[in-house]
Fold each of these.
Amino acid sequence: MEPPAGPHVVIIGAGFGGLNAAKALRRHLVRVTLLDRHNYHLFQPLLYQVATATLSPGDVASPIRWILRRAPNVRVLLGEVVSIDARGRRVLLEDGSLVDYDFLIVATGSSHTYFGNDAWMPFAPGLKTLEDALEIRRRILLAFERAEREMDPARRQELLTFVLVGGGPTGVELAGTLAEIARQTLRHEFRSIDPRRARIVLVEGGPTVLPSFPGKLRDAARSALRRLGVEVREGTAVTGIGEHGVMLGPERLAAGTVLWTAGVAASPLVRTLGAPLDRAGRVLVAPDLSVPGRPEVFVIGDAAAVFDRRGRPLPGVAPVAIQQARHAARAILNRLRGRPGAAFVYRDKGNLAIVGRGAAIADLGWVRFSGVLAWLFWLFLHIVELIGFRNRFVVLVQWAVAYVTFQRSVRLITSRGQGR
């Protein structure tokens, strides 16, 4: 079949930003090539549930080709982009091939950063990919298995101590779910240990957990965590991470499992654009999301530094990436039609975080609430946003089973992985 005619738009990355940009350009007189190193789109907001054995990888991922099967002008290519030649208007793939473009949308997302302490990485995995989630699941489950065989009480308690570094939504969600696994899911399954004695510590270097939420909602989340038995340590800097625990200032905390949920940095690919970057490596884009001096190149999502009317950086969440993707697509179409561009304006629809079973917080701007109602709203919203009927149905069933039985059906240690 002959490829569709029209200018060539290349999109790098099939996350929320890249995928929605491709959708916005379907059925228009442009040729679109979507490049990604994976053949699936990952629903990252539920990735922590893969890490905590509630959902399987296939529940939170969908094949990109299937999602875009009704977009005849969109071609999907599996490949990893290693550099961008903005002057020559082409991108270089890992296998040496080149892809030319008329317009480029960079939606490469972010990865976790250790703030210059990369030596901590083997001891404290982050959570950004399916591979990360499976490795975290492996470490969590192995900690209980090893504690069951350990005869030394001190070493056993170390194995049953879990430290999560970073008190943002991911850290809070992981801590709450991990506490439920220890207190409920595993409580009757071991003979030598009592999983309920597991110690779960959430460490936040800033003054408070969930800093993007109002004070009352932060208090509600903090109280919910403490009811689950999670130790919340705020204003506490991590100064070292090793094989047997963490350093909290001068204090050493022995821990068998350390998880990193503290910070992110933009994909290093954006450095090849030669554009100005902020401290997190994000591109300082123009108001219309284009690269200064390169009006045909747009950067969106976690890779772009965009600020609201008060000068605050927009959060690295899915709604921001989705709105930016649609804006970039409109900007390209308007430019092709000879129409003027416009500055991007983010419409904040609210912020949500789940703490545990029946506990969540919701800030919708015009109303703020917590507890069971917020938890039900969180469940509904994530079911609606999942791509594909199968994913929605399976996730709904898994959540229902977990709620009724307190069980998590995918507690499988499937690979040796890396690390301890």
Amino acid sequence: MKKAKRVFLIVLDSFGIGYEPDADAFGDVGANTLLRISASEKFNIPNLLSLGLGSLDGVNFLPRTDALGAVARMREVSLGKDTTIGHWEISGIVSKRPLPTYPKGFPKEVIDEFSRRVGRGVLCNLPYSGTEVIAKYGDRHVKSGDLIVYTSADSVFQIAAHEEVVPLETLYEYCRVARELLAGEHAVGRVIARPFVGESGSYKRTANRRDFSLLPPKKTALNAISEAGLEVIGVGKIGDIFVGQGITESNPTHGNLEGMKVTEELLARDFSGLCFVNLVDFDMLYGHRQDIDGYANALSEFDSWLGGFMSKLSEDDVLMITADHGCDPGDTSTDHTREYVPLLIYGNGIKPVNLGTRIGFTEVGITAADLLGVKYSSEVGESLVPKIT
């Protein structure tokens, strides 16, 4: 196969397909995001099935089809199950140490220094559901102006504030302060702005979330592709996750529908390189909120869009679909889950082959680079190009 001109790599954020062998260490034995949502009456994914989703290892509950392209089940090897570590591994970085988490809240010295730097008090400082924390502390925040700071099972420092109390740009600046402060032993994966609106009893988070991530510790496949003179176009929170490293153009979005619209607009544009897309609603709106039907419906909406997108691919385009972790919407927790993820590869010259279970999400980035004629290697994994072309 001649090298591809463009690779469209789409991450369905949190679309896990079954718990990994080490899930007991993460409290996730039994988790299976795909199995959970497949029981919903909203679940309708003919295009993903045509790509071979039902043929993956461990997926014995969906129809098996003659796949249109190459398929594999990917096992994460990094010590984590969050967005940052998942995307880093997709791009070629193996994280041997987990990022710090704070099940009892952040240390007093961290909170006191943050409060001093921003000139506001702090409420909560505990792990919390994002919707529950604004329901409980929203009134006190609106009355006092104190910031709602909370975390989760992930390595995150989240700041919630009402948009009429703290303007968005001010909230983003507070996040930059926290990002600068949270270094060394407290270098969390992400500082996240969580703005909300509404009145007492009916507060609602808005789509103006922003992530302020930790810098990747080494070069990724994105760096290799952009340094080869090709474009690396991020859609959704990709630019934030990688702090712009290796990204030549960033297109922030406010949800799946906008993300799909922007991706289709890029498909109609002439460029050479990688279009790296994150569709966040699966995780943010449905996985964490334990909404099985909502998750299934969002996947069905993506599948409906996918059929038209695939029909418009050029002969030198390749489509890759994967995920960064799981977030089972029907388990006993609102947290991410330690799961395998799918890899579906489609395009002219891609063989319909089942590669079984692969070790390391790293092979996604290595393969994307190789498809574009760019060599990139990681300590784990190899390019799948010789096996799929």
Amino acid sequence: MEHTKIILPPPKRPGDARKGKFSNSAISGWVVAALLLGLLIGVLIGERRASSGSGDEKQQQVSQVAEVINPDVMKRLAEARVAMAAGQWVEARKLYLGVLAIQSDQPEAKITLPLIDRYIDNAQGRVLVKTKPPGASVKLGKQGAKKSPAVFEEVPIGSYVIEVSKEGYEKMEHKIVVRDDRTEDVGVLELAPQAGSLSVSSEPKGVSFEIVAADGEKSSSGKTPVTLEKLPPGDYSVTLKMEGWPNFSEKVKIAHNRKASVSHVFSQGGLQVISDPSGAEVWLKAQGKGKSKLAGSTPLNVPGLVVGQYELVIRYQDWPEIRRVVEIEEGENRPLEFAWKRGLMNFTSDPPGAEVFLNDKRIGRGGEKTPLQWELPEGDYHFVARRKGLADVVVDTEMDVANNKRVVFDFEY
């Protein structure tokens, strides 16, 4: 039989760095020797079993040889050797354990595994972690947390999860494999800012809004409704502005991965104004504020009014004004009806065919002349009758709605 010489690593000297343990170089030598020994044993067993026995014994030997050269076992062994050559000891250990799970007496795996375990126990590496933004807390395995950029020395080889956290940012995890005598530079781990969302709505829609952070910095503005994403956590003030209404403000707190909301209904009401006769002007203003504005002519619908009291003025031609103070309530479209007490005034003249004027405005429809009739509310009036070639005739009279009134213009001719 041909013998193969296996060179074992030299015995440990008293001055070795790791007292009481094998050095990594010595263990590496042992692993190489174990590999050679495992290969040799496998070959010898195969030769012996193939060359001896006959009949049933030979068939049994063939079966045992087939077990020795199991394709899955051979594949794992080959991958384990490649992993060790690349310094991936943890991966190699995993592969050898897989071999033993298939073939519990596999020589190479049985001899090599204890040496790999010894190597892993002694091997250490170095890890460098940077973050954006810097100053984040970095935790590696059971080692204490450090501020980035962080350097972890004498880290046992193996797989780890790096935990990174910083106030105002989302926590993150990063997996890493530490190898022997190397510096594992993780690179720059960028943290995502924490953020929440805010929904702003109003009734009616289209109201202007403004959001201001607690530090006074304006964050956003626009029109409702809107949902704002990725707002940094913190305290905010939301202000809704609608012309004619008091501003509405509310404070809100934005939390990470939470949705906050601000909603406001601008209380509104309305008026429905009719008059007799129709066509009267409607002037409107909030009580005690500014000047009256013409809202339109009757019949009139005035929606979207701020809840509160209003001063209402109804004007028709030169008739006396009608004034009212009305209360607008939320959701109410209040009907209002106005009518002047009036009577029919009959105008005649001698001779007929005169034009009649009230406050310099001609009475009548079109070119109507005396005799004519005109409806007027109660009150005092100053009329002037004019006829070509004759002097004007003036009549001052009072309108009594209880009885029709007759006005006669006597021209001198």
Amino acid sequence: MKRVFLIVLDSCGVGQLPDGPAFGDVGVNTLRSCASSPEFSVPNLLKAGLGNLDGVDYLPKEPNPTGALCRLAEVSMGKDTTIGHWEIAGVPSARPLPTYPQGFPPEVLEAFTKETGRGVLCNKPYSGTAVIRDYGMEQKETGKWIVYTSADSVFQVAANEEWIPLEELYDACRKARAILQGEHGVGRVIARPYVGSSPETFRRTANRHDFSLEPPKETMLDAIQKAGLDCLAVGKIHDIFACRGTTEHVYNKSNADGMQHTLDYAARDFHGLCFVNLVDFDMQFGHRRDIDGYARALSEFDTWLGGFVKMLGPEDVVMITADHGCDPAYTATTDHTREYVPFLALGPKVRPGNLGTRGSFADIAATVTELLGVPFETPGRSFAKELVEEN
């Protein structure tokens, strides 16, 4: 194959993994919750075979699917963006990244304060929208950073763009990333800018920026780049992989923006991988437990997909998957949920059919690199030969 478009619908899980209870997740199913909404309309995904996935008994079956499909289990010890994408890229994580349900220890905050010249507010797990509502005015009065976390391995820093320059926020996060290594090596340090003059008007902006821990091993992105092929990143992919392995990247302001960037890359003659993350599913709707919003976003993606597949050349394939779940109907928490993820592939040479349930997200990396003819060592098992018709 010449071009692979790998699109991650961030958090679009398809049902609880067997070990879900160990992660605090029972009965979760992101796609099922979305399918219950009147806003849910995905005819192109259904025609591709979305309803034929193992365990999906709430959507109609397609007797003649246009795509190849399977369900993938996660073997990494986590349910977050970093670990999920690393596994998709061929590097499962046997050990969980550190989390801080009681907040970060004094040695971390003291070092952060010393390096940035500003103190810290909050320091506990918090909703990203609630934390600016509850601490925003105190930030205006004191000039301190709002530092918070979640059930994920993240160190999040919120600052009002109108009071603290955006570049100062980014620089503070770079300093936090340098501090948070080794024992305290969280998956991501996230800059969370917002604007507004009062709790009623505070809102987060699109200027979020992630500073990720570097992957512990070579990923498929490194292998593709090393082979001299293109590795184009759309959305937060470049950040998730700590700026490693991509030959070109562009950030998204929204799902619609990311889909347009993908169209722009598809209009170019490149050879390699275009790796896309659409984060609104997770950030705007999953964590906010907005079932109708999530369903509407899936419907918008489905409409876009119908046009995108018409742009695929004879040596192109588009793959659609997810990195974890974030069930918008699960009210026990507002965190990610431990779920299987879907995999759908479409393209002129794709052999339609159900490939069942596979043991690791890393099977995607093994498959992508085999299709592109790139040597890569991963515990994932390629299904390239089942996926694509031989010449």
